[in-house]
Amino acid sequence: MTPIVLIPGLLCTAEVFAHQVAALWPHGPVTVANTLAGETMADMAAAILADAPPRFALAGLSMGGYVALEIMRQAPERVVKLALVSTQALPDTPEQSDQRRAFVALARKARFASVLRQAMASMLHPDHRDDDQLAAVNLRMGLTVGVEGLARQTAAVIGRPDSRPTLPTIRVPTLVLVGDSDPLMPPERSRDMAAAIPGARLAIVPHCGHASTLEQSEAVSQALVEWISG
User: Which residues form the AB hydrolase-1 domain (predicted)?
Assistant: First the structure.
């Protein structure tokens, strides 16, 4: 069986993949990577590679997708399958970087829990923004990562390279998955990624915002099981 490495997104812990770990477990040993160390995407990728099996299937969510694409630059020969979930290949615009810095500044001076609640609700499908269980999971994860973890991850995200030149070089079975109502990563960006990766499969999850693994856990798990077993 193929080992599977899952990389969480910004302000996420292993809990973001709870449903997917259970679904993928029969198909190979599953590891959720730790993204709390490293100042850059390259640092995060190198740390994950140092702990990863010699060959593995790789799935990254949001920021985890950025790290996954960096792994594809550093060690493409070690990855046997790739899944890019609720993510993009584009670098930040200057405006996006400014917004990220402003969010970190607000998190430092305001009550972090309140900042998290407001920011995380805006990521979800409108029908999910009042879901107390989703809110509790997101708050728990964000508080675990903490303000300094947020600052470090945000700096790495801002400094990431443009991954579009990497996409045509990817030669492993690839799934590109996105929510149909993702306000942070619009589906057209996933369409563009899938079109640029030879043979990639695109999955657009209905009734879903940015927190796809939590908002539509069954659908995302099913897509990942099909990906790993295909």
Answer: 4-222
**41-67 pLDDT tens trace:** 999 999 999 999 999 999 999 999 999
First vs last C-alpha separation in the chain: 13
CATH code, domain carrying 219: 3.40.50.1820
Domain encompassing residue 74: 4-92+157-229
Q: What is the number of domains present in the chain?
A: 1
Query: In the structure encoding, which two tokens stand for residue 72, read together?
Result: 């594809």
| pTM of the complete model | 0.96
Give the Cα separation of 136 and 94 in Å (integer).
32
- Please name the residues in contact with 36: beta carbons below 8 A apart, sequence gap of 6 or more: 145, 149, 152
Picking from 64, 55, 58, 1, the residue whose alpha carbon sits closest to that of residue 27 is: 1
Q: Is residue 150 part of a domain?
A: no
Q: d(Cα 185, Cα 189) in Å, to the nearest integer? A: 7
